[in-house]
Fold Putative aliphatic sulfonates-binding protein.
Amino acid sequence: MTASILKKTLGLAVLAGWSLAAQALDLNVGYQKSAINLVSLKAQGTLEKQLAPLGVTVKWYEFQAGPPILEAMNAGSVSIGMTGDSPPVFAQAAGANIVYIGQEPSKPESSAILVPAGSTIKKLADLKGKRVAFTKGSSAHYLTVAALKKAGLQYSDITPVYLTPSEARAAFERGSVDAWSIWDPYYAAASRAGGVRVLSSGKGLSANNTFYLAARDFAQANPKVIAIVFKALTDNNKQLRGNVQQVAKTLSGYTGLEAETYAAMLARHPDYSVSYVNAKTVQQQQQVADTFHALGLIPKAIKVQDAVWKP
């Protein structure tokens, strides 16, 4: 989203009668360690400064992955959050009252399927009969499905082991699983620790889109707040691209991950700009939904467009 569009959005908001008076509202933000832009805003207190004059209190809640963020959102305890491509599909299919409000540029190289350095698994087809760890309903889930399809394998050809990122890393390191499908910064952290080999990144397999989502009722009632959040994210992206080492150090101080891990993540994918969801991304997301439905992993077919918020 460009600054001019955001300025126009805010200007139209005032003309449309959005009040600039304080309104006593909680903005509960669900984030992951992978949410570079959000974590950076949290570290700087940017949203708190910008929204306090409007009576909006910002509260932050950290999650390991996208699915629990959307579960909390559907339950009413999270207002907005950021996830990968698959969690919204599973949530929509389950009837969650959430909407896509924005997107970041795709980042296919920011996720990967890892195997131990000495593994006999040399190509994707070698995953047949193997135990593969990933978080159910996450972007890593779709990456795994796409990788199997490319290799000419069926989902039933592997044994999926559904684990959180921290559980999966532990299982991977003790040899309980043969491969691990994961996203940054966990991917970067595992690579830095050593003893792993990248079987395949997401390039050519998945767009690995990142989405901002909101509870539908919250989005409909608070478009001004969302516009302010988007502007803060857009402005902050310029800062992120300007000083990688300092940004990595700041993020490390707020998440506990090493600064070098974030530096590797930023080098792999430097652009965290935000925009409203476009038609091309909706089409890519529909492919994700159709793939999971065809495999029987979601209970019904869905139309992604039905969950796209129009400001």
